[in-house]
Amino acid sequence: MSKMAGSPMLPQKRARPDSKPTLPRLLEPEQKIYDLIESKKDMGMLAPDLKRQADLSTHIFNKALKALQAKNYIKEVASAHNKRKKLYMSKRFEPSDAVTGGAMYEDGNLDADFVDALRKLCLKHLKSRSIATLEEMWEYCRESPVLPEGCKLQQVSEIVRSMVQLKEVEELKSSGVREFVRVPAGTVCYRSLKRSSAACAVRLSSIPCLICPRIDDCTPDGVISPVTCEYYNKWLSF
């Protein structure tokens, strides 16, 4: 039976803002590669992982990858953690801080000036307050005109952790009395050990923890730990 001329039109579905864009028809290998890259959003995908998951021959994979770049659907992004490997990302995403390293990196390289400025601010705050929590140091650093673009709590955490390892700063828990009276009992806080030097600053900027992509998973008694990390142990013995 034919449709009646006056039958109402069905409403069209609206595309969600975060939905994958509709692209002109791609060849099957191109579509497979694009879908994999798109699924990683702002994290991108390394070429070896992409090739393995796409399950394509080297010739077809390389040809499809070049075609997607030529069509301006994907881009090559530099990873702060491994500059020798190519990372691919959809053109509609900007790389996350986990890829670029965030404010600690500039053009894929560790920004030593930023690291040193953050370190000095943390030490200055500790010396003026005697005892401070991580959040207090972060608040002080991000409001300082020395860092016009501010900083993130994770960045301050990494700097302070490095200073603890260099014995510039001591980590301890508040007792809630005397010098700790401002900090609730049991709260982790820090104080300066007054061991500031140019040598410490140089060593701090080279600590492997600052560029480790697994820093959030690293704990003293975990599977990933400074106790078992070969890079950290080499750095300590340098």
Automatic annotation (TrEMBL):
One of its GO terms (cellular component) is RNA polymerase III complex. Residues 1-25 are annotated as: Disordered. Gene3D superfamilies: Winged helix-like DNA-binding domain superfamily/Winged helix DNA-binding domain (1.10.10.10). SUPFAM superfamilies: Winged helix' DNA-binding domain (SSF46785). It comes from the Eukaryota. GO terms for biological process: transcription by RNA polymerase III. It is found in: Nucleus. Belongs to the eukaryotic RPC34/RPC39 RNA polymerase subunit family. This is DNA-directed RNA polymerase III subunit RPC6.
